[in-house]
Sequence to fold (110 residues):
Amino acid sequence: MNVYIDATFDSVTKIAFIGYSDKFMAITGIKKIKAKDINEAEFEALKFTISKIGKDNLFLTDSENVIRKSKSLNIRIEHIFRENNIADIIVNAAKEDYHGKFRAYRGKNK
Fold:
């Protein structure tokens, strides 16, 4: 199975959303984490995905850093362009949902 992986990262809060998806978004996963930078978040997305669905997949990422760091993991992984990364939709939706809830909370408590 082809599995797309991605992450978003906020450099101020250090909050990242990591996630994965198959081509049809039938199999997805999302998680909020703290990370030091986007490279750490992207690699955590790969580790999270492996922990949930195993190594026996083709992992697709828009991060060259993840490709380099994953060489010791004995997995199949390929680089894709960001605009072709379906997981980008998943992680950005989670980020927007989180920020929307945060703004609504702040609005009620001013």
Summary: The mean pLDDT is 92. The CA atoms of residues 5 and 46 lie 6 Å apart. Helices lie at 38-53, 64-69, 87-108. The beta strands are 2-9, 15-21, 28-34, 58-61, 76-79.
